[in-house]
Specification:
Order of helices and strands of chain A: HEEEHEEEHEHHHHHEHEHEEH
Distance between the termini of chain A: 33 Å
Largest sheet of chain A: 6 strands, mixed
Number of helices of chain B: 9
Structural class of chain A: alpha/beta
Number of strands of chain B: 10
Strand order of the largest sheet of chain A: 7-8-9-3-10-11
Shape of chain A: globular
Oligomer: heterodimer
Strand content of chain A: 15-25%
Radius of gyration of chain A: 20 Å
Strand order of the largest sheet of chain B: 6-7-8-3-9-10
Order of helices and strands of chain B: EEEHEEHEHHHEHEHEEHH
Radius of gyration of chain B: 18 Å
Helix content of chain A: 25-40%
Chain lengths: ~280, ~250
């Protein structure tokens, strides 16, 4: 292994996700390449740009009839393309985990949130039920839930959206993964709650030295939260640039996206609309 | 309180069981004005809109629309003048009705003749090709569906449009198209809008004045200029404004 792949947590080269449907092949991701270090990498794009499929492909969660191919897909030097399903499953949750968009649909409705977190821990670590519970309680505290003892015994429908999302984060981080993929983790939340959740995510990722892939449609949020941004359209990366320089983006698609956002500081009578160029997908 | 207001709400209260979701809310909207209501989930902003639209009959207080005191149950004439566009274009269109059926129904209810021409006209106004007329909702994109929902509201030629998060389910590029369409229609037809949204930038773009709601109360009413200058008076409005600017790393 050379030095660069030692540092990189994840290396993707020419990732493709194809769905073989009766009416033809749908190319959801078409040749995406990037490396992830211990950083906050943002992936932005509109619906159908393949950003969520990228996250799922890394975790081997693409449903049938989807097929994932890549020239190279490595997690810390381990080749994921040739790895068997069982090993991929071991990796999932333990080393790479994912926070989904909506806690309402992603938590088990008939199990208390505390038990779900403890279960996530015991799947990956040899631990007694008591130890797992203690760990879960301290994890709930780490995501700033004020009364972990009380919240532990609540069912998902008894917690608010923001609290549910914190429970999800606790569940995903309890196994101490090296990579966290967050798929629109705050889109279902109110702005003020959204900031609290992001703060927690940010603190945990920084203090534990994790790599974060932050999937979002919100350009402003990604600009202010991430280190680096990949802009996706139609399954391809249009451009990759440092988050702080998003305002100076060169690609017409990124410029178009930024241009069609209403802006309090630059009021306009008519918003710019996006003209999609088929050449971008060539 | 001017008597010529398009909409005048005085001491509106709404309760669902034990929870008091709108508390002593008063505001007025002038004819031709676009008025925004912003707030977080549970602030009661959509409930206010539903009361105005006559969809919620359990309220107290006074609601005057177009100079008429409104009863709990509205008459047919009311719905010709006031129409609503809902948040989710995937949920607000009947999946088994074509665009044509959807647009023909309000005309049939109100016994309006010449449906044929009116439907074509409404589709033209919202920028839908007439070839889409016999498509079902699942054959349309999100932006196209929202255009159908707007066309359905416009086909009766109302004077007031109630917009409940009309673009929050859409991609930003589609949002820009729908917002431009709404702006153009408003200028063309001198419509009065109430726009409910959680997105301050959208409200700042679309509205002249806005009301910030929290826990069912109107916290602050301000002009779009005040919003653009980031100069609200109340702490909550300020907090909401700061939160919507994006993430800020401490230190």
């Amino acid at each position: 292994m050379n030095a660069t792949s030692e540092q990189a947590l994840l290396t993707l080269d020419d990732l493709r996700v194809d769905f073989h449907t009766p009416t033809g092949i749908v190319n959801a991701v078409r040749g995406l390449s990037f490396t992830l270090g211990r950083e906050r990498l943002g992936i932005v794009g509109e619906s159908g740009s393949g950003k969520s499929m990228t996250g799922r492909a890394i975790l081997d969660l693409i449903p049938h009839p989807g097929v994932v191919t890549a020239k190279r897909m490595e997690f810390r030097g381990k080749d994921l393309t040739t790895m068997d399903k069982a090993s991929r499953r071991k990796l999932r949750g333990r080393h790479i985990s994912m926070v989904m968009q909506d806690p309402k649909f992603s938590l088990n409705p008939v199990q208390t949130v505390g038990d779900q977190i403890a279960e996530a821990y015991r799947v990956h670590h040899k631990a007694s039920a008591r130890e797992a519970k203690e760990r879960s309680l301290s994890m709930l505290e780490a995501v700033q839930i004020r009364e972990p003892g009380r919240v532990y015994d609540l069912y998902p429908h008894e917690v608010s959206g923001g609290m549910g999302q914190r429970v999800m984060i606790a569940m995903m981080l309890i196994a101490e993964p090296e990579i966290l993929i967050a798929d629109e983790p705050t889109s279902a939340l109110d702005v003020t709650v959204q900031l609290q959740v992001l703060k927690i995510l940010d603190d945990l990722v920084t203090s534990r030295g994790m790599g974060l892939i932050f999937i979002s449609h919100d350009l402003h949020l990604v600009k202010s939260f991430c280190d680096r941004v990949i802009v996706m359209y139609g399954g391809k990366a249009m451009e990759t640039l440092p988050a702080g320089e998003l305002d100076r983006a060169q690609h017409p698609y990124t410029r178009g996206l930024l241009g069609c956002l209403p802006d309090l500081d630059h009021p306009r009578e008519t918003l710019a609309t996006l003209n999609r160029d088929p050449a971008w997908l060539a | 309180m001017s008597t010529n207001s398009a909409i005048n709400v005085d001491k509106l209260n709404v309760s669902f069981g034990d929870s008091h979701v709108v508390k002593d809310l008063s505001f007025a909207v002038e004819p031709g004005e676009s008025y925004g209501i912003v707030g977080e989930s549970g602030s009661g902003k959509s409930t206010v809109l539903r009361v105005l639209a006559g969809l919620n009959r359990d309220w107290s207080g006074e609601v005057d629309i177009l100079g008429k005191r409104q009863p709990k149950v509205r008459d047919k004439a009311f719905y010709r003048a006031v129409q609503m566009v809902f948040q989710d274009p995937y949920g607000s269109l009947h999946p088994k009705k074509t665009v044509d059926d959807t647009l023909a129904e309000p005309l049939a209810i109100h016994g309006i003749r010449d449906a044929e021409a009116k439907i074509s006209r409404a589709m033209q106004d919202v920028g839908l090709p007439t070839s889409f007329r016999f498509r079902y909702p699942h054959q349309l994109s999100g932006g196209q569906r929202q255009r159908v929902a707007i066309a359905r509201a416009l086909v009766l030629e109302p004077t007031i449009l109630l917009l409940d998060e009309p673009t929050s389910a859409l991609d930003v590029s589609i949002q820009a198209e729908v917002l431009n369409l709404l702006q153009a229609l408003r200028h063309e037809r001198k419509l009065t809008y109430i726009l409910v949204s959680h997105d301050l930038a959208v409200v700042g773009h679309m509205c002249e004045r806005l009301l910030v709601m929290q826990f069912g109360r109107g916290v602050e009413e301000m002009t779009a200029q005040t919003l653009a200058a980031r100069a609200p008076q109340t702490a909550y409005a300020q907090q909401l404004l700061t939160a919507s600017e994006g993430f800020r790393r401490a230190g």
